[in-house]
Amino acid sequence: MFRLFFTPGWFNEFDLLFKGIGLLVALLIAAYSWKFYRIDKDNKFAYFSLAFVFVSLSLGISIFTSGVLNFFPLRETVAQVLSPITGEGLRFSELFYRAAFFVEMASMLGAWLLIFLISQKPRDRLKRYFELSQIGLFVYLVLLISWVANFKYVVFYLTSLVLLSLIVLNYYKNYLNKNKNKNAFSVMSAFFLIMAGNLFLVFVFLHSSLYAAGQLLMLSGSLLLLRTYRRVVRG
Amino acid sequence: MGARRSRLELVFDVLLSIQNKGGKIKPTHLMYKSNLSHKLLNSYLEELIQKELVVIEEEIVKKKKRPAKVVKITDKGLAFLAEFRRMREFTDAFGL
Fold it and tell me: How far, in Å, CA of A22 to CA of A17, rounded?
């Protein structure tokens, strides 16, 4: 069976739990941003919501593929359900997993890219057509990278790392521009933790426990985003 | 020079001016406080009344001893103010 990411055996359950928490946080932020889009009709809220929908889609697919790969009863059930698509005995399983990993990576990279563009651009610039053409070019690159990463997973983590570093830099500028607002600091720190998590994942080939450390850092980032979200909602 | 206020920000400024005056204000004072022309303020007030964010009532003014119009913020208007503050905090926190 085709595998792209290698989770240490003892970490399988934690992996699903951590990603499940991340998925919920991403959905909460996406829904909240969408609510503001409905009030203000400003595209920045819609793009931001879409970015977090992409994050949750990526995590959802990751939970699904990890669950199928690592848990025997679930694997058997999925094999039966998917047999019309994947063939008897999962003949096309490699193709199926490659497709799932491709969507997982493309949506995560797409999300980071959108957040980077939104956090960088001044107001209203995303409404213009040339910005959309720029997004189109970036989408092409994201799809290309996701395809290449299907053969060499480190490309995915490296690209994530680069995009997240740029996001952290934008949020640092935002923190300074907003008179050192504590929520802006929390968001910057959360993305810093997610970036640090990706850095660990780049070097997972050295030792598999680096995967657990990376995921733990990413979970901390998600929880910090959740804390900021709660503070904003409570007002 | 400050950036041009969006429609939503103008609505927020109008409602905030009313809230800062204890929940009711004379239309003339509102015009100065929210920094809007008479024509523009009237068009915004019409919209706010339609959306039940404010109401216009008549009150007896002690000095003149005759009824005068006042703009009052409703509970829905106060809820809108709270929601707008949350939106601004969200925008600031996430650099939107």
Answer: 9
